[in-house]
Amino acid sequence: MGGIRWLLLVVLLPACVAEEPYHCTSGGQCARSGGSAGTCEPSGFCSFADPGCGGGRRYGSHAGDGLAGECVADGISDGGLGDRTVTPDAGSGLSARLISASYYTDWNGSATYEYPPEMSKTAYHIRTDGVVDGDLLLIIANVDNGSGTVWPSPVAPGFTQLAENFFGNDGQTYVVAWKIAAGEPTSYAGAYGNGIGSSSAVLHLIAVSGARAASPIVDFRTQFGSGTGADPVVASSPGVTTTVPGCLVIYAAGVDWESAPGSNTSVPPDGYSVIADLGDRGDMSWDWTSQHIAAKLAPTAGPTGPISATFDGPHNGLPWTAVIAIAPR
């Protein structure tokens, strides 16, 4: 009988030892034994393609925080990034929030990373769940390769293009556009124009509440790098000039990476709060494209001075920046 008790103890002991969750920092750390590649989600856990999920991905069995086996972004429009609302100063009445993030790449040849599922090599898709009439909407996006007309103008119905530029040694095209929301559809969709290559892309839809309805953008500045790329990539802007107190300054930047694949860390501009930070694989890893967006309140009118963020990755690259000053009501 004693031997039987000992045998039972040996059999039951393994069931009492809890497995530690597996944490990731890049998509390259997520792979199943069969070789299928996964995505490192912003939660720090791996997910894998699953057409049964609304977002197209399901957390693996080793995810923590109760996420194991759960769908990623099922019914969520932001690519699983969660709430990203920035209210620099409640008294200003201005706040910026991430409505959705879209991404796509299949350049690596072993897997396709996409969200939402409508994203493809020839077309883009932006979900709008959470937009409120009267919001100032910003589409900020960039795609590998392209041309000066790869993004349609307008990039979505009713938007006004602030910039669309093709630049870099490998080639990258970014676009910035805005509108005041009024009865928006459930999504925006469009087809890429001439010059598309890998189609490795990142797109963000930002909503700003509390902006004045007439002429909400009081200044805008964009520029991009040229010449020899660097690592780390410092994405610098001379800044903008606000004309009234309490403006919200949105800083956006991305990189034309000159080699692939990779991943990067980023350091936002001093005093800025991050709204979005994403590579084309759906986390901080990418084949060719990454994008960073942050915001800060300018309490007094006048020039902001230079603004810069840093992208630290394994390859050289050239940056682009776009800075938008938005006036309160």
Structural summary, described in words:
The protein is 3% helix and 44% strand. By secondary structure, the protein is mostly beta strands. The radius of gyration is 22 Å and the shape is globular. The termini are far apart. Mean pLDDT is 86; it is low at 1-17 and 74-83.
Q: What are its keywords?
A:
44% strand, 7-stranded antiparallel beta sheet, 329 residues, disordered N terminus, mainly beta
Count of domain modules: 2
- What's the number of extended β-strand segments? 25
Ends distance: 81 Å
On the 0-100 scale, what is the average pLDDT? 86
Question: Are there runs of 5+ residues with pLDDT below 50, and where?
Answer: 1-17, 74-83
- Please work out how many helical segments DSSP would assign: 1
Report Rg. Answer: 22 Å
Helices and strands, in N-to-C order?
A: HEEEEEEEEEEEEEEEEEEEEEEEEE
Summarize the main sheet. Answer: 7 strands, antiparallel
Silhouette: globular
How much helical structure, as a percent, in the residues? under 10%
Structural class: mainly beta
Strand content: 35-45%
Task: Summarize the SSE layout with pairings.
Blueprint: H1 2-12, E1 39-40, E2 46-49, E3 57-59, E4 71-72, E5 85-86, E6 95-105, E7 113-115, E8 123-127, E9 136-145, E10 160-167, E11 172-180, E12 187-191, E13 196-209, E14 217-224, E15 233-237, E16 241-242, E17 247-257, E18 262-263, E19 265-267, E20 273-279, E21 285-286, E22 289-298, E23 302-303, E24 307-312, E25 317-326
